[in-house]
């Protein structure tokens, strides 16, 4: 009896389970659709790519739009003013350079004229100093003769007159030469200067320092400060 009841309950339970089982059509209708991950990734990637390209195109189009925009009248006027200022600076620089070149040319021409005027008689002065040297030699010899006659009773008035005449002539000639820039210099007892002196011999002198001019063989001449002829001298050399 008990077995019959148990078998009857089991059959009833199985039949109820089959009755409530969903059909294939119902499962297909209400089941969630499968997700295609590959397609979703492609769509997402394509969307981002399109967005980046659009952004780049917008950035490239923006400068082109700005460049094509016409400049305002103030900007054009400012550019013209800057160009004119540069042109003014350029012309001013050229003007200053021209003025400087002209002044340098004037100064050079003035120096050349002054030099030509000061040394125009240079060759004539060289020839003239020989005559001055002859007068100086005549005075030296006349002075020696007069000194020799001072200790004796013999006096030569003609020699004294001749000496005075030659001395006056030399003085007048030197004054005239000095007016034209020609001067005579005597370096006795001075330090030897190779720019103005010509050493013809050297000898020891215990009472004088080395390099001192102790004898003048021929006096020198200068023309407007420039040495025309060096003085010929004897120099002390003790060592």
UniProtKB/TrEMBL annotation:
One of its GO terms (cellular component) is PAM complex, Tim23 associated import motor. Belongs to the GrpE family. GO terms for molecular function: adenyl-nucleotide exchange factor activity; protein homodimerization activity; protein-folding chaperone binding; unfolded protein binding. Keywords: Chaperone, Mitochondrion. It comes from Pestalotiopsis fici (strain W106-1 / CGMCC3.15140). It is found in: Mitochondrion matrix. GO terms for biological process: protein import into mitochondrial matrix; protein refolding. Residues 52-65 have a biased composition (Basic and acidic residues). It holds the Pfam family GrpE. Its main location: mitochondrion. InterPro entries: GrpE, GrpE_CC, GrpE_head. Residues 43-79 are annotated as: Disordered. This is GrpE protein homolog. CDD domains: GrpE. PROSITE patterns: GRPE. Essential component of the PAM complex, a complex required for the translocation of transit peptide-containing proteins from the inner membrane into the mitochondrial matrix in an ATP-dependent manner. It comes from the Eukaryota. The keyword Mitochondrion applies.
């Amino acid at each position: 009896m008990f077995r019959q009841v148990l078998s009857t309950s089991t059959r009833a339970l199985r039949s109820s389970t089959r009755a409530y089982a969903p059909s294939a059509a119902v499962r297909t209708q209400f089941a969630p659709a499968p997700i295609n991950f590959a397609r979703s990734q492609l769509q997402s990637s394509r969307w981002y790519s399109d967005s980046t390209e659009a952004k780049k195109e917008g950035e490239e189009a923006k400068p082109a739009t700005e460049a094509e925009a016409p400049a305002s009248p103030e900007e054009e006027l400012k550019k013209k003013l800057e160009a004119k200022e540069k042109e003014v600076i350029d012309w001013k620089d050229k003007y200053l350079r021209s003025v400087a070149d002209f002044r340098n040319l004037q100064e050079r021409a003035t120096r050349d004229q002054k030099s030509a005027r000061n040394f125009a008689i240079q060759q004539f002065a060289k020839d003239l100093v020989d005559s001055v040297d002859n007068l100086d030699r005549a005075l030296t010899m006349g002075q020696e003769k007069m000194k020799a006659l001072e200790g004796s009773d013999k006096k030569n008035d003609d020699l004294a007159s001749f000496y005075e005449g030659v001395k006056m002539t030399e003085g007048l000639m030197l004054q005239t030469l000095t007016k034209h820039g020609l001067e005579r210099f005597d370096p006795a007892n001075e330090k030897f200067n190779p720019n103005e002196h010509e050493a013809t011999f050297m000898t020891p002198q215990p009472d004088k320092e080395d390099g001192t001019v102790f004898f003048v063989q021929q006096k020198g001449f200068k023309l407007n400060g420039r040495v025309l002829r060096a003085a010929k001298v004897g120099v002390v050399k003790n060592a």
